[in-house]
Specification:
- There is one protein chain.
- The protein is of the alpha+beta class.
- The protein contains 9 helices and 8 strands.
Amino acid sequence: MNNIPTTALGLAEQGLPVLPLRADKRPFGNCRACEDLACGGRPNMRAPGPCACPWPCHGWAAATTDPGIVGSSQWAAAWRRARAIGYHPGGAGVTVVDLDNQTAIDWARSVLPSTTTVATTRGQHWIYRGAVRSVNAVRDGVDIKSLMSYARWLGPGTGAMADVPAAVHELVKVKPAARPASRAVAVPAPAGGGKCPHRSPVYLERGIAMAEQRISTAASGVHAAVYRTFLAVLAAHGRCGCLTEAHVGRLFMAAQAKGESVRHCETAWSNASVALGM
């Protein structure tokens, strides 16, 4: 790819949400104002478009179809340093089945319908029409990249694009047995010491149940929904010591069931605590 900025601009004009990637194929890090998502993230983290600040922050969520942003002076430095173009498959309405080795390719040929195929350094990308949740390592050498993820742009590929097959939908389903139901909470509950607002345990239980529901029913913007929910729980229940690690664990589990990683949960909890001065 001889001219990455020009190619990226052309792709954005065609409606593909793009972002610059470093030499190690990862997105550029957040700017100082947004390090570790201290800003709380974008309002709608599922939609393609710019992050809240003018820099290409927040990984896949920075991907944009706006030529004015892709070609802006704020993004120019990142494009000059970029060694590849990334894009948000879910934002483009597609799903990438990333096949990392020959065994994975052989599996795809035996199970999945033919579709648009792009050669990669180690294997192939099979691209289907339609967006699904992203899950890594669904099989040995197989990642599913779509919503809340990014893939490298390696060209338009060959072959007619098919719809996401049932086999892929099955791979990305959240299976109860795979959920880390007994996983220990990675962050401590607040130490307490403040005035207690809980006249009965029912008040706290209702608050946690409502928070779980708020996360589990989030149709979009899951990152932001998790952060706002953690913030609300800490503001209402976090200063007196009644909030236990079991309660925090329930919130983390609800977030992980929506596709959030443990690291994202820890970051959101920490940022909410800092925002409240706790």
